[in-house]
Amino acid sequence: MSIEASNPSASEYIAHHLTQWQTHQQVGLVNFSILNIDSVIVSALLGVLGVFFLWRAARRATPGVPGRFQAAVEILVEMVDTQAKSIVHNAKSRKMVAPLALVVFVWVTLLNAMDLVPVDFLPSLWRWVYGLAGGDPHHAYLRVVPTADLSVSMGMAVSVLVLSLFYNIKIKGLGGWLHELVCAPFGTSKNPVFALLLGVVNLAMQLIEFVSKTFSHGMRLFGNMYAGELLFMLIALLGGSWAFSFAPSNLVLLLLHVVLGWAWSVFDILVIVLQAFVFMMLTLVYIGQAHDSH
């Protein structure tokens, strides 16, 4: 794919914007065959930004009448804490799980919100910086919506799986959890042959459940944000088609670009917050299920 031509085709434009800034990296004995540098940098910066705002709200909290920022953070914390109490019934576990859910919600919301940044703004800025550094700006790739990167959304989902396994072992003990793996959901039998068969079936069902929950957890977030990112690119193409032609007959493309861009941005705000809330709730549900005995 080349975007060196002054008028790239629609497929070239989209392909360029969907290409990650990648490198082959090895750290110690661990070989990262492909590392999406843009996703790592944006995720880290937004994570620090989210922690800073929460820290600032906690530092400036007053017992009197709260300001708007403090009130908004208190409402958010209370909402997450209420959800955690209704799902995770172990008070000791909630001391860690509730703050985790708050971080997940804030972080994923910020990652999703990068979808509202104009499609060409940061990539164009990066191409300019890359060119000043002596690189070929046509090969300067940058994607700024980390949750539209499958490695990020699935990475967070796998992290939730690891936490679920941790709490399964912590609450039930290693022996109790292993016993549950071969005895639920279909139970066991006093007959050794039937007990062995049921154990195999139960273990298979448990493994399928863990895999399917993790896969759907990450893919739901990825799919929605990837679709939103792609829609913004298609809307940008409407304006780009008019900009390259300046034909009066194509003014309808500019009108569609403005109207559809505004309409989808408003709707995307709901998608951004909703997907973060769903991801947080599923995190609480999966960790809460680890506390339940079958």
Total helices: the number is: 8
Strand content: under 5%
Shape: globular
Q: What does the largest sheet look like?
A: 2 strands, antiparallel
The overall strand count is 2
Cα distance spanning the termini? 54 Å
Low-confidence stretches: 1-5
SSE ordering:
HEEHHHHHHH
What Rg do the Cα atoms give? 24 Å
Q: If you average the pLDDT, what whole number results? A: 88
Structural class, please? Answer: mainly alpha
- How many domains? 1
Helix content: over 70%
Arrangement of strands in the largest sheet: 1-2
Give a verbal description of the structure.
This protein is mostly helical and 294 residues long. 72% of the residues lie in helices and 4% in strands. It has helices at residues 10-17, 37-59, 68-87, 91-113, 121-132, 150-183, 192-245, 251-289, and strands spanning 22-27, 30-36. A two-stranded antiparallel sheet has the order 1-2. Helix 2 crosses helix 4 (91-113), helix 3 packs across helix 4 (91-113) and helix 6 (150-183) packs antiparallel against helix 7. It starts with 9 loop residues before the first helix and ends in a 5-residue tail after the last helix.
